[in-house]
């Protein structure tokens, strides 16, 4: 049964963590997987999560099953966080999923059932797991132009020109904020323009928002998504609590469907539940129980928002400090674009070989596509990393 299987290819992000761990060099720097680190290089459990854990331990009386959709109060909290104040609130349904990748797969499976001929358009480049998950669901995938290697910003005109070709059988996958891997986000005018194209040409927007709060703040990061939800009849959304609640290993996310009516989304949710039953039955509870506990408690919500905002500020500072170091100690403004990028990631514009050189000669681990995780930097690493970037460039 197994002998004809080819040697497996390694996941371009997850395999880096293993290689980093096995690297004996003391000055190694992990800028691979998207995990936030504080200035001590640690990823501590967030304060609000620690408090919520105490509450859950004290109040949870059973470990019996929750239900196919997971925790419904969690689902509602996720919908509120993303869509509050929009007209979509009365025509939306959500299920809890094992992380956002689980949500992507559930919505991929739903599209395959609801509209089997769907082509999913993903940005070039996009999150490394978008194509594999959509293809695993049996969907066709194509790229739309997104990032300009020259300006290191979004090539909005070209993107819109290509998206104008998308029609009713197409689904356009957008990053809600903090584009992965580039760090270059579309502006609000582009959100408006894509919304108009969706209305005019009939494609369905699909927003993957895994970093809400890491860009310009919780509300601001949802602005484009909210505008879209207010103005289109149907829309798909995936979200994650891995980053903004620091719940990476708990696999806590949600798949959200906005439809023409409450009846439509109720049917879509029913289908999602059957698909979940045939895949993993129901999601793990712990992470969602913690998030629900925080978002239903005003004091805990304040503690969480404060810490998230500190993390966001720290990311901005790290970007600035790195650019200052490159400008002041190496006399180069070549990397000034790093300051304009949003969230955890930035694409340096390096080739696979240059990324390999960073890793082999300097022990600096970034993804092969040129992505580095700014949130993996510590202040003390910056001079070393800046020097390596200049030497490799
Ligand atoms: C990343 O892009 O580094 C993270 O989202 C981790 C993952 O699941 O790939």
UniProtKB/TrEMBL annotation:
<dbReference type="GO" id="GO:0033585">
    <property type="term" value="P:L-phenylalanine biosynthetic process from chorismate via phenylpyruvate"/>
</dbReference>
<keyword id="KW-0663">Pyridoxal phosphate</keyword>
<comment type="similarity">
    <text>Belongs to the class-I pyridoxal-phosphate-dependent aminotransferase family.</text>
</comment>
<dbReference type="GO" id="GO:0004838">
    <property type="term" value="F:L-tyrosine-2-oxoglutarate transaminase activity"/>
</dbReference>
<dbReference type="Pfam" id="PF00155">
    <property type="entry name" value="Aminotran_1_2"/>
</dbReference>
<dbReference type="InterPro" id="IPR015422">
    <property type="entry name" value="PyrdxlP-dep_Trfase_small"/>
</dbReference>
<comment type="subunit">
    <text>Homodimer.</text>
</comment>
<dbReference type="GO" id="GO:0030170">
    <property type="term" value="F:pyridoxal phosphate binding"/>
</dbReference>
<dbReference type="GO" id="GO:0005829">
    <property type="term" value="C:cytosol"/>
</dbReference>
<dbReference type="InterPro" id="IPR015424">
    <property type="entry name" value="PyrdxlP-dep_Trfase"/>
</dbReference>
<keyword id="KW-0032">Aminotransferase</keyword>
<dbReference type="GO" id="GO:0004069">
    <property type="term" value="F:L-aspartate:2-oxoglutarate aminotransferase activity"/>
</dbReference>
<dbReference type="InterPro" id="IPR000796">
    <property type="entry name" value="Asp_trans"/>
</dbReference>
<dbReference type="InterPro" id="IPR004839">
    <property type="entry name" value="Aminotransferase_I/II_large"/>
</dbReference>
<dbReference type="GO" id="GO:0042802">
    <property type="term" value="F:identical protein binding"/>
</dbReference>
<keyword id="KW-0808">Transferase</keyword>
<dbReference type="InterPro" id="IPR015421">
    <property type="entry name" value="PyrdxlP-dep_Trfase_major"/>
</dbReference>
<feature type="domain" description="Aminotransferase class I/classII large">
    <location>
        <begin position="27"/>
        <end position="389"/>
    </location>
</feature>
<protein>
    <submittedName>
        <fullName>Aromatic amino acid aminotransferase</fullName>
        <ecNumber>2.6.1.57</ecNumber>
    </submittedName>
</protein>
């Amino acid at each position: 049964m197994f002998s004809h299987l080819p040697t497996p290819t390694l996941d371009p992000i997850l395999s880096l963590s293993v290689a980093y761990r096995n690297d004996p060099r003391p000055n190694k720097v992990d800028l691979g997987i998207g995990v936030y680190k504080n200035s001590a290089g640690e990823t501590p459990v967030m304060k609000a999560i620690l408090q919520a854990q105490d509450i859950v331990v004290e109040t949870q009386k059973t470990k019996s099953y929750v239900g196919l959709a997971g925790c419904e109060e969690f689902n509602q909290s996720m919908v509120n966080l993303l869509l509050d104040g929009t007209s979509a609130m009365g025509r939306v349904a959500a299920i809890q999923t094992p992380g956002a990748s689980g949500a992507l797969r559930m919505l991929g499976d739903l599209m395959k059932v609801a509209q089997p001929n769907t082509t999913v358009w993903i940005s070039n480049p996009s999150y490394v797991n978008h194509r594999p998950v959509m293809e695993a669901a049996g969907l066709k995938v194509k790229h739309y132009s997104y990032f300009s290697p020259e300006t290191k910003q979004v090539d909005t005109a070209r993107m819109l020109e290509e998206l104008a070709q998308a029609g009713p059988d197409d689904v356009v996958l957008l990053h809600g904020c903090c584009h992965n891997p580039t760090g270059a986000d579309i502006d609000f005018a582009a959100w408006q323009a894509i919304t108009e194209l969706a209305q005019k040409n009939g494609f369905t927007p699909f927003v993957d928002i895994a970093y809400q709060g890491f860009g310009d703040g919780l509300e601001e990061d949802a602005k484009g998504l909210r505008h879209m939800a207010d103005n289109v009849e149907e829309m798909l959304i995936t979200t994650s609590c891995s980053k903004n609640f620091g719940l990476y290993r708990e696999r806590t996310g949600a798949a959200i469907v906005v439809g023409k009516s409450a009846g439509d989304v109720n049917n879509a949710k029913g289908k999602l539940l059957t698909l979940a039953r045939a895949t993993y039955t129901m999601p793990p509870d712990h992470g969602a129980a913690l998030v629900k506990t925080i978002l239903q408690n005003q004091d805990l919500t304040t503690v969480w928002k404060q810490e998230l905002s500190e993390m966001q500020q720290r990311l901005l500072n790290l970007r600035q400090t790195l650019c200052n170091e490159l400008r002041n100690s190496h006399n180069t403004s070549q990397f000034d674009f790093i300051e304009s990028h949003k969230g955890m990631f930035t694409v340096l514009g390096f080739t696979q070989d240059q990324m390999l050189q960073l890793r082999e000669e300097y022990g600096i681990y970034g993804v092969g596509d040129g992505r580095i995780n700014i949130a993996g930097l510590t202040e003390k690493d910056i001079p070393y990393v800046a020097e390596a970037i200049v030497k490799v460039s």
